[in-house]
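Hi everyone, sorry if this is the wrong subforum. Our group has a chain we'd like a structural model of before ordering constructs, and none of us has done structure prediction before. Sequence below.
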Amino acid sequence: MTKRQGFSLVETMIYLFILSILMVALINALIIMISVFTTSRVERNISQSAVSALGRVVQEVRRANVATVAGPTQLSLSTIDLSDNATTVQFSLQSGVLMIQSGAGTAIPLTLGHTQVSSLTFTKIITTHSEAVKIALSLTDDRDPDPSVINFQTTVVLRGSY
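Answer:
Right subforum, don't worry. Here is the predicted structure as tokens:
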């Protein structure tokens, strides 16, 4: 008997077949990981935008003495600033971005860069004992290949109205 030198054609084909199956599995795993990362990034961006935007709106409504809903996407609050001066804080929707404007200052965005506000509704609630503002906010991310809308809502009672 002689010693074999190298692989036979059948052995080479089997090894190539096994290698190609492993490569397909590896590429499939990478595609799944990228998809999960993209989805996670989009959801994190939307969640951070919702927390920061709704947190600021809630804070300002709680401090307000009077709330005026000028339209479904506009809220004006009469409040006192940190220097005990009367001021107005306004929230509005501009080109898919939730904006805040304090006094005569410039309007600044409350949502993050890639987050789009698909709907915003302010509703004033008046009862015999208190006043409140219901806020409904729907957000989406413009980087999402399959855009999904995530809805948030809260109700805030105005200071001194309870």
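For your construct planning: Residues 9-63 form the longest helix (55 residues). The first strand starts at residue 66 and ends at 71.
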